[in-house]
Amino acid sequence: MAKKKIALVGAGNIGATLAHLILQRKLAEVVLIDIAEGMTQGKALDLCQAAAIDGIDLNVLGTRDFKALSQADIVIITAGIARKPGMSRDDLLQVNAQIIQEIGQQIRQHCPETFVIVITNPLDAMVWLMQKSCGLPFQRVVGMAGVLDSGRFQYFLAAALNVSVRDIQTFVLGGHGDGMVALPRYTTISGVPLQAWIDQGKLSKQQLETLIERTRNGGAEIVNLIQTGSAYYAPASAALQMAEAYLYDQKRILPCAAWLQGHYGVKDIYAGVPVVIGANGVEKILELSLTEIEQQQFDTSVQGVRNLIQTLNTLGVS
Fold first, then answer.
1. Run of H or E residues at 8
2. Is residue 88 a contact partner of residue 123, using CB atoms and an 8 Å limit?
3. CA separation (Å) from 133 to 35, 77, 161, 222, 257?
4. Chain mean position to CA 173
5. pLDDT at position 83 over 80
6. 94-153 pLDDT per residue, tens
7. pTM for the full model?
8. Are 40 and 30 in contact (CB under 8 A)?
9. Contact, 195 vs 161, CB < 8 A?
C-alpha cells in the first residue's frame, strides 16, 4: 500500500513538533516547507536520523520548493509570525494574511485534492482566506482551534477536580479568540454532568468562571511565560488528532473551525463548532441546542471574526 504524505508549511516549533509526532505515530511521509534557507533541510535530516533510531521507515523532506506539495494527502499550515507578549491573535492579521494567500495559491496549483488544516492566527479569518485562495471545497479546508481550546479547558478542569483528563469531555466553540465560548452545560466527567459536581460543592461557580477565563487566555499565558514564542506542543497534538481522523476515516466528533451555512444562526463564515471528520473531510456539522446566553456569546464571538474579515477586505486582501 502506498505511503501517505503530509505536507507541513512552516517549519517552526509547531511544524517540527508535528513532523516528529507524525513519524512517532507512523502516520505518513513528511514534507517540511519553509522559506528559511537551510532550516527545513536541517530539521528534516535530524528527524530522519531520529526515525532511524526508532526503527521507523518513513522519510522527511525539507525544502523551500512548493512543488513538493504534489500528491500530499494533507497540508497543515503553521506558517506566519507568532505572537509576542502584549500581542493579541488579531494583531497578526495583515502579515499572516499575505502569507496564507500565497500558500493557498500554491495549494491550488500543486495539490488541489488535498485536505487542509490551518493553524495560523488569527485562526478563523485565516481559514476563510485560505479557502478563498486555494479554491478547495469548504469541507476540505478546516481550522484547528476548538480541539486546542477544549484540551486546555479539559486540563484545567481535571486539575481543579483532581480527576483524570481522560474522563472529561467538553467543547469550546466560536472564534479562536478572547470571545471563545466554553460550554460547561455540555461538559461531563465520566458521563456525570459538570453541574452535578458543582451542586456537590466540588467546584464553585466562581472557580469555574476562573477556569473558563484561563482557557480564553490560554495562549497568551504561555506567550507571556515563554516571552520569545508561543505554544506549540498542544497545537501540534490538536492538529495531529484532526489529521488522524481524516486519514483513518475515524468519523471523530471534534470542535473545529468549519464553514457555516445557517448553522447556529450564522451564515457564510468559518467558526468553531463540533463536526464529524472522516475521509471526506468535514462530513457533518453538529448543532447543539444553545441557551439564549450561550447563543449571544457565540454570536459575539462570530462577529469578532466578521470584523477581521471586513478588515481584510478593506486592506484589499481577499
1. strand 5-9
2. no
3. 19, 13, 44, 31, 17
4. 12
5. no
6. 889 999 999 999 999 999 999 999 999 999 999 999 999 999 999 999 999 899 999 999
7. 0.95
8. no
9. no
Residue 176 annotated to the active site: yes
Q: Give phi and psi for 86, each to the nearest 5.
A: 90, -10
Nearest to 80 by CA among 61, 60, 104: 104
Degrees to nearest 5, angle at CA 58 with 239 and 139: 35
The Cα–Cα gap between 172 and 81 comes to 25
Cell of 198: 458543582
Residue 239: CB atoms within 10 A of its CB come to 29
List the catalytic residue out of 20, 110, 176, 263: 176
- Structure-derived torsion over alpha carbons of residues 230, 234, 238, 244, reported in degrees to the nearest 10: 120
Strands of the sheet containing 141-143, edge to edge, are 60-63, 29-33, 5-9, 74-77, 115-118, 141-143, 252-261, 267-278, 281-285
C-alpha cell at 309: 474579515
CA distance 63 to 240: 21
Convert the pLDDT of each residue in 175-212 to its tens digit. 887 788 999 999 999 999 999 999 999 999 999 999 99
| % pLDDT > 90, the chain | 86
CB 118 within 8 A of CB 148: no
Question: In this structure, which amino acid lies at residue 34?
Answer: D
285-290: long-range contacts, CB 8 A cutoff, minimum separation 24: 285/258, 285/260, 286/253, 287/263, 288/171, 288/173, 288/183, 288/186, 290/264
Cell of 188: 461531563
